[in-house]
Amino acid sequence: MSEELPRKTIFAHGSLGLPLAVIGYPLSIWIPAHYSGGLGISLAAVGTIIMLARLTDVVTDPIIGEISDRWRTRFGRRIPWIVVGSLVMMTGVYNLFMPSPDVGLIYFLIWLAIFFLGSTMIVLPHRAWGAELSPDYHQRSRVTAGRELYVLTGLMVAAAVPMIVEIRADGAAVSQVFSTLWNDAIGAFSGNFAEKTVVDRATLTGPVLAGLAWTIIVLLPVCSFIVISQVKEPPAPDVIVKRPTFKDGLKLVMKNGPMLRVLLIVILVTFGEAFRNAVSLFFIRDIVGVPTIGAAYFFYFIAGLAAIPFWLWLGRKIGKHRAFMCTLLVVASVSTANLFLSYGDYLPFFLLFIIKGFCFGGLQFLPLSMLADVIDVDSARSGSQRSGTYFAFLGFSEKLALAFGTGVSLNIVGLLGFDPSGGVAASSEAGVTALRMVYCLGPVVFYGLALKLIWNYPLTPLRHAALRDRLERRKVWIARIRQP
Q1: How far apart are CA 27 and CA 16, in angstroms?
Q2: CA distances from 262 to 123, 245, 370, 373, 453 (A)
Q3: Domains along the chain?
Q4: How high is the pLDDT of residue 379?
Q5: Which of 29, 31, 60, 363: CA 20 to 30 A from 275?
Q6: Among candidate residues 213, 171, 300, the one with its CA nearest the CA of residue 30
Q7: Alpha-carbon distance 234 to 129, whole Å?
Q8: Which residue from 13, 82, 21 is spatially nearest to 227, judged by alpha carbons?
Q9: Which residues touch 366 (CB under 8 Å, ≥6 apart)?
Q10: Helices (H) and strands (E) in the chain, counts
């Protein structure tokens, strides 16, 4: 059993998850709505551009993952990437989130690609750094859970920005934000939204994205400094075998059965989530008629934050993969139930939405913790520690799933006739039906495929403990042969 990580280290390292969460939320929810509904680009074109921009990760992810593993600098392997990546990210956010009204597809493509590059430069080294903080199965759960605590806090911050913009647009003063939020909560659970003004989405998305941009520009350098100054990078591992090339490493990854299984699970689940999230703003406002989207997501992320200790406990009790199965089954049930909602069904929608929020933490941190364990399989075979390369494969898979989930979803709904500017009244019947099917049943299909892969997942806690014992014996043997 390795030494227990101090809480200070776990929470300092995880703090970078806060601004990264604020970054991810608008990309999933508000960017497609703004560039299609607010700036007049077709919904299908927005989805296609998102897919094209993500394809740049085919090049950047493997390169950055490999270099961050191999580089040796006086500042460490991971720190330089986080510093430079933060600068790239802030530049991308400023231009992507606050475009002028006359921008076109080329502008959107270029700044979206720069935004994605900054994300890669930060996320891959940060995740690899987290996996290297401890070799222990349950310690890694604490590291990923600590990061997800910040992620959910960041998502609450991200949800608070549009909530405040909505409240201000409805005529309330800044001092009335909390009282208005309370009234919105009462309205959500009583169904008394009849007198609530629905803010025009075309005029809402611009101020929301501007508020989110400045939030990121302030938080990202602060949290990057906390990680860099408070968390010590583990020393680069000593190896007794020649480090494989990237091509050789790719072959080892492809032979790593648990790794391939985790990647397929992550791809399916991430695709299903992106498939729904891309159209969630349209479903919530145009199908159910909820006028307070910011408040809805604020309560959603509160539920997710409160549930993290539960998913951490359940992972210890029954294993990470079984706990992950539980999250998927619950979320699939909630998604199916949404299919039966009609305009004005506020109470059932909010109840289902909060149940989904309760599962959010499990969906986020359990697969990451599973991947950290999978890396040990490669370490046992190769004698090397290539966390950066492994997280590059994970990040690349997630990003492609996000891009294609978002792109396919928006293309289906847009091409079948849903109008993002005019809503249900200006849309075809086929477009409205497609919106319902994509939001409610799309995720269920992909979750079902993932469940088949999780059912007999091989790397259980007992097997991982045996693997770690093998690695520890190897470490002792290396130390002995190096003694003079």
Answers
A1: 18
A2: 18, 23, 7, 10, 8
A3: 10-232+240-482 (1.20.1250.20)
A4: 61
A5: 60
A6: 213
A7: 8
A8: 13
A9: 144, 311, 315, 320, 321, 323, 324, 327
A10: 18, 0
Q: Positive or negative CA dihedral for 400, 406, 409, 415?
A: negative
Q: Which residues contact 370 (CB under 8 A, 6 or more apart)?
A: 262, 320, 321, 324, 457, 459
Q: How confident is the model at residue 232 (pLDDT cuts 50, 70, 90)?
A: confident
Q: Considering Cα of 355, then 360, then 365, then 371, what sign does the dihedral take?
A: positive
Give 265's pLDDT tier (boundaries 50, 70, 90): confident
Closest CA to 368 of 197, 34, 126: 126
For residue 254, the one-letter residue type is M
**Residue whose C-alpha is closest to residue 85's, from 56, 60, 106:** 60
pTM confidence score: 0.75
Give the pLDDT confidence of 81-97 residue by residue, as tens digits.
899 999 999 999 999 99
Return the DSSP state at 36.
Answer: I
Whether 471 contacts 380, CB under 8 Å: yes
